[in-house]
């Protein structure tokens, strides 16, 4: 149970006791919210008495006093009332210090909770068209989706990570025709690139690999057959590149879902039949339309074009039918770029049409990333002269700065990613600043062991009363509650803020408190337990939650 959950439970018990003893009138007990407060008021606070004033027909201060008087005895915190009706809590230093033992016992499972109650959630992210290497802008999608999946797992959800492979439709056909043209050109044939084709240098590289492996085999085939075979070969090459680049970023998927399968296994036909039964399909100008306006959508949408080819929206409906009706996810999170925000209302209409609660689908939007070097925008790739790929940035700065710095702003805020800052070894670089805290602790523990000190459960934790020790531990105790907040709000940028604050508290502790002091052996043992516990939390935060490395040396 987290700190805030434990305090809320104490308040709930006090409310019941106050009502049973007549200090408060009878009324339905609301949920209790406890939040951090300003240091001059304590550590945590609840405004519940203000919220209950009308229901109880009492002044908030009287309600707060009644709750305080009926709080059960606690080793955890003291309580006081402040105007106009807040109930504030101060954590007791001995209790704060004793939590080190709980961290030692639980290890990295210390932050786990059951808020998700085992519900099945799917996080579908990245899902870039498999028509070339992943643009660096897509890295933000990858980091957001992967970090949220990690957090949701820790707070008790069953999480599936999915990449939706757009391997059907217009863009895939253009990709295949472009690849065929480059392939034929490499073999000396005068084959023009298709209009609106894929012009990037990477298409030449794909074609060259096919020539090296298959020679001119495909020029002897009918053009349509050759285009299809090259499409499949090219798709496999792109997917393999995507998997390698995303793995290098620390991102993995449980499932790669094929759009094409929706049409091959009959899912799309089942969805059409369902929508027809509900009177949500009509024909106009030779095309089939989805009557989205009947279920709250902003406008009706084409499902099947007059050519007989399904439209983009057709796949959206069939895919979400598969997610909710066939595979039965309780909650689905789609991570989309902010330029897709106009599609959100129509997806909510889709949910209603499928008979699914629209609140079970969350569209997590994120904004653009501008790549810079020393403050100047970088627009072109040094290698290919066109798009800047994730792989290019990975090779220059590594995965850790990408993961951390792409979480330093809220999802909907634009981000400037400075390549020079990302590798700078100074306090100006937040990645270095946080990782150095872990490295510094590792150095302390190595020194302690070399000098013969025991690093473990030996040490009287009650000695840890220094303000900097207490401040550091209280910041550690914030992490389980923070993970729940991040899961509820889908706002992982709070994690990087927290990591920097934790590092600041540790560096302050290191400045104020001598860890290894031969003249104070008992205090030394206690402080070694403290720094070992904080090292575990840093490693958990960096490796398990943020998907980075926790270096022992730098």
Topology:
Layout: H1 3-20, E1 35-36, E2 44-46, H2 48-56, H3 60-69, E3 77-82, E4 86-91, H4 93-106, E5 120-124, H5 138-154, E6 158-165, H6 170-186, H7 201-214, H8 223-248, E7 255-258, H9 261-264, H10 267-277, E8 281-284, E9 287-290, E10 301-304, H11 312-326, E11 331-337, H12 344-353, E12 361-366, E13 369-373, E14 376-377, H13 390-397, H14 399-405, E15 415-418, H15 419-422, H16 430-450, H17 467-477, H18 479-489, H19 493-512, H20 521-545
Parallel strand pairs: 5-6, 5-11, 6-7, 11-12, 13-15
Antiparallel strand pairs: 1-2, 2-4, 3-4, 8-9, 9-10, 13-14
Helix pairs in contact: 1-3, 2-3, 4-17, 4-20, 5-18, 6-7, 6-8, 16-19, 16-20, 17-19, 18-19, 19-20
Give a verbal description of the structure:
With 554 residues, this protein is an alpha/beta fold. It folds into five domains: 3-91, Gyrase A, domain 2, CATH 3.30.1360; 120-167 and 259-366, HUPs (Rossmann fold), CATH 3.40.50.620; 170-248, no CATH class; 369-422, no CATH class; 426-545, Isoleucyl-tRNA Synthetase, Domain 1 (Orthogonal Bundle), CATH 1.10.730.10. It has helices spanning 3-20, 48-56, 60-69, 93-106, 138-154, 170-186, 201-214, 223-248, 261-264, 267-277, 312-326, 344-353, 390-397, 399-405, 419-422, 430-450, 467-477, 479-489, 493-512, 521-545; strands spanning 35-36, 44-46, 77-82, 86-91, 120-124, 158-165, 255-258, 281-284, 287-290, 301-304, 331-337, 361-366, 369-373, 376-377, 415-418. It has a five-stranded parallel β-sheet, sandwiched between helices. Helix 5 crosses helix 18 and helix 6 (170-186) crosses helix 7 (201-214).
